[in-house]
Each structure stands twice: as C-alpha cells, then as structure tokens.
User: Fold this.
Amino acid sequence: MKRMIWVALTGVLLAGFGAIASADDKADLIERDKAWGAAGTKGDAEAVAKILADNLVSVSNKGVTDKKGELAANEPAPAGTQYEPTDFTVTFLDKDTAIMTHGTKGADAHYSMHVWSRKSGQWQVVATSTTPVEGK
Assistant:
C-alpha cells in the first residue's frame, strides 16, 4: 500500500513539474533574449519585431511605450558595440509564461525584466522593463 501511494505521488509530482516548463524552455528563452539584444544592437527592427508581441508594454527611464514605439526607437549601436547579458534568471509562472531578469555590461549597462508568453508554440515578450545601471 505504501509503495502504491509513493508511486502515485511521484507520478503526480513529475506530471506537475513537466507541465511547468523544461530546461530546454529556459535555454530557449535565454537564446531568444541574446538574439533580441544582438538584433537591437544591429538596428535590425525586422528581427526585433518577431520577438516582441503585438500587445507589448515597455517601461524604461524614457517612459512607457508599445511595440510600435520600441521598433521606432531601434537604431544601430556604434560600430564595435557588443550586447553582453549577464546573470540570467528565468521563473516560470506556468508552461506558457515566464519572467526573465538579467543585467548587461558595456556602454548601455542596464538591468532588464521581461515577461515572455508562448502562444501557438512561439515565445514572445509581452512586457519589458529596463533600468540603467547607476554610475554608468
């Protein structure tokens, strides 16, 4: 009887964790963020547009904007600029929603928080916020 209860509980726990997210999802989101940063550094608005959801909300020290505003502000960085993200954390709220935080180094050093949503198998950013690193 104890063995049956243990097997049942283990199955429930494993099924629950599988429904939240996988390590592959975390790695995928980190790679998508790096691609977003690289595309933004190049001023590649077309690539950035694929990462940002149509209903995006973006908050920064410049104010609140949407996808259209983010794309309009996307310009190439000076030659030699590198996107250098650091210290990623990814927390899944459910299997299709994740909160990511990280920092960046370099001329535009900042902290970021992104809310990622998966719709029809595609991860996109629905909310983002950046805070400049003080003293940079």
Summary: Strands lie at 52-60, 63-65, 84-94, 97-105, 110-119, 122-132.
